[in-house]
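Q: Could you write out the predicted structure for this multi-component system? I'm mainly interested in how the pieces pack against one another.
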Amino acid sequence: MAHPAVDSDEESRISEGDYVVLKRGDVYKSVQIEKRKKVIFEKQWMFMDNSVGELYGSTFEVDSGGKLILRKPNNTEDPTDTKGAGLDNRHIVDDGKSQKLTRDDIESLKEQGLKGQEIIQQLIDNSTTFRDKTEFAQEKYIKKKKKKYESNVTVLKPTSRILAMMYHGREPGKVCHLRYDTLAQMLTIGNIHAGSKVVVFETCAGLVLGSVMERMGGHGSVIQLYPGGGPVRAGMESFGFPSHFHNTLHEFPLCKVNALLSGTLNVSEKDLDSQSNGRSDEQGSSSQVSTDRGDESSSEPQSMEVSTDPAEAKKKEDSEKLREQKAQEKRVRMEEKRKRLAAAAALLEGQNADGLVIASRFHPCPVLLGLLKFVAPSRPFVVYCQYREPLIECYTKLREQGGAVSLRLTDSWLRHYQVICFMIFFRIQFCFICHLCPKVKQVSPIEQLHREGKNILTFLIYCEEFLFQAVLELFKRSFQQFFTRCKWQMLCSNYVDSNDLQYLTKVTSHFCKYFIISFHGTTL
Amino acid sequence: MSFVEYSEFIQEGDVVIIFLGHDSMMPIKVEAGAQTQTRYGAIRHSSDLIGRRFGSKVTCSKGGWVYVLHPTPELWTVNLPHRTQILYTTDIANITLMLDLKPGSIVCESGTGSGSLSHAILRTIAPSGHLHTVEFHAQRAEKAAQEFKEHKVAHLVTVRNQDVCKEGFGVVGVADAVFLDIPSPWEAVTHAKKAFKRKGGRLCSFSPCIEQVQRTCEALLEQGFEEICTVEVLQRVHDVRSVTLHLPDFGPEDGGAESAKMASEEVLLAANSSHPSVTCRTATAPREMAGHTGYLTFATKPRG
C-alpha cells in the first residue's frame, strides 16, 4: 500500500449516486448506488450501502441480511478440500441418490448463516460420487455449485464493453439484438472520436448513444434524433458520465426534420414560433390551474362559507402564489426546452456533421436517406439493422441515388475459445510419469525412464483432427526436456493391445480430453 | 487535416485518400506544385487539391474523375504501405472496445509494425491520452515515428526502438491498456503487468496460432490476470446484387384462358425474354473471404 500513488485512488472510489455495474460470473447488472435501497441481483437482494467509499473492482460477499462485506483480495480462490479424484466417469451412475443433503438441509444451512464456500464444502462432503469424479469434473461441479450458492458480487465502473455485454446477455430485445462486437464495428467504422459532431438515431435504450459519448470523451457534440415524445436514454445514464458530458448532448425530434430542412424552422421564425408556443402553453397551464381550482372547491365545499377566516385567506393566497410559481417554473422549463431545440437545430442546420450512427427498430432506408443530408462530405456513416433485407434495400437505394462511396453490407462473426492452460498439464504430467515406473526407488522417475531407455512413448490422443497438431505440440514441448528422442504417431484405441500401452492409453486419453481446445457451441 | 481531427478543406502537407473506384484507393501527400499519376491521368496538387473541400470530385488530366477523401484510420488501414503483416479494422474495432479505450486512455503497444492499429488507437485516445509504442526493428520504428509526424498525431505518441520482451515498454505504472502483437507474447506479460496503473486495466494479445495463445494464457494466469478470454472475430461482406430466377413451364393448364392470363401478367416483366423469369435483390456471402487473422486474447489486470 506504500506504493507511490501514480494514479489517485480517490476517483476510483465508489460514491453515493454513482452508476455502477454489478458482476457475478458472466452476469452483469447496472444499478445506481443509493443508500438503504434494495437491489435484486441474481435472485438475491442486497443493499449497496457498504460499497460506498470502497474501490471500484472490489468484490463483496452478501450476507443473509443483504449487507455487503468486502472480501480481501488475497483469498479470492478457495482451497476446497476435494480428497482425491477418479480417473474417468465409468463408475458414476445418475440415480439421484448421490447427494445426501436434502433441499431442506441446504435451506437450513443457509439460514444458519453459512457462507457459500461452506455450503459447497458441505455438499462435497455429502456427495457419494464426488470423489469418483475426475479432477476436471470436480472442478466443473464446484463451479456450478459456486454459481448457485456463492453470493459474491463485484462492483465495476461502467464502460461500453461491460454495458454492451450486459444488454446483450440480459435484454437483447431492448438493444435490437445488437451484439458487442457489432457495436465495436459501428464505433470504429463510424470514426467516432473526440471533437467531432455526430448525429445518432437509435432505439437501443441509449446504449449506442452512451457508447458514442464515451468515445467522444465530452469533446464535440452529439445530436440525438428521437422518434415520439422524447429521447430514451436509460442506457446512456448507466454510463454515469460526468456532468460536462451532458453539455455536449443535444436532442432533436425526428418529426421536425422536414421543417428544419425546408427552412420553416429557421431561427427568426423559431422565436416567433416559440413565443406563440409559449402563449399556448400558458393557456394550457392556466386551464390546468382552473381545473385544479375546481378540484379544490369540490374537495372543500365549506371553505366558501368561512372565507372570512384570515388563516384561510392566507392559505388561499399561498396556494395562489404556489400556482404562479409553478406556472413560472413551467415557463422556464419550456424556455429551456426551446433553447435546447434551437441549439440542436443550429448544429444540424450547417449540414456538416462528422458522423452518423443509426441503430433502430425503424426501417433503415428512409431513416438513412433522411438523415444523410445532415452529414458533411467525406465522412463515414454506419447503419445497423437486426435484419438483412431492409439493409439490402438501403444499399440499393443509396447506390441508385449516389452521393456515397465505399458502401458495404457486412456482418460480424464472433467465436469464443476455451483455452486450457499448461498449469494443469504439468501437475498431471508428473503423476503420469510416476505411474510409469513404480518399481524403482531412490531415483527420480524421469531419470529412471532415461536409464531404462524408455524414451519412445506412444500416445493416443483423443482430439478433433484439426487440433491434433496443437495437442501434439503441447505434448512435445512438455516432454522434450525429459526425453531425448521423441517419436510421435497417431493411433486409434481399437488397435492397442499391449497391456502397458493400454494403461498408458487410458491415462493419456483421460488427460487428453482436457487439452482439447473446445468451442462454445454458438457461432455468434 | 489530422488523423484525430476533421478539417473541411485540403491544405498543403495533408495526406488525402484518392478514391479511384470500387475498392481502389491510394494515399497521397499534398505538395504545392506536385503531380500524382493515376489511371485516369494526372492530379495537379496545387490546382486540383489545395483549397478544395474534402469529398470533392476531381477531374484528372485524361478526363476521368476521382474523389478526394479525408483520411481516417480505417482508410489508412487499407491504404498504408505494408512493412509487416497488419491488423485490420474488424480486429481493431474489437480491440478498441474490449480494451475500454476512450479519450484520455494511456496505452502501451508492441510491436508498432506498420502502424495500422496505432492510428486507430490514437484516434480514440485523443486529445488527452497517450500511446507508448515499442518496435524492435529500428527502421520500422523510425518510419512509424515519421508517419505519426506527417499525420499530425506525434504529440500523442512515443515510439521506442527496443525489445519489449527484454526491456519492456519503457514506462511503468501508467497504462490503462496494453496491447501485444509479438511472436512470443508470454515473454512480455511481466513487462505488461508492470506497465499498468495501480488500479489495473485491460490487456489484449493478438496471435495467429493457438499454441501462442495457450502459452500466453498460461503466463497471464500465472501473473494474476483475470477474466481471460480468447475470441476470434471475422467480418463477412455481403455482395448485394440482382439475381434472375427462371420460372418453370408446366405447359398449358386445363383451367383455361383465365388462369393462364393471370400467370402471364405476373411474369410480365420477363415476358419479352425467351424464358419467363423473376428478378430479385439479394445479398450473397462471398465465395471466398479473408478467413482467420488471429486470436484475440483479452484479460483484466486487477488492482494491485
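A: Regarding packing and overall arrangement: The first helix of chain A runs from residue 103 to 111.
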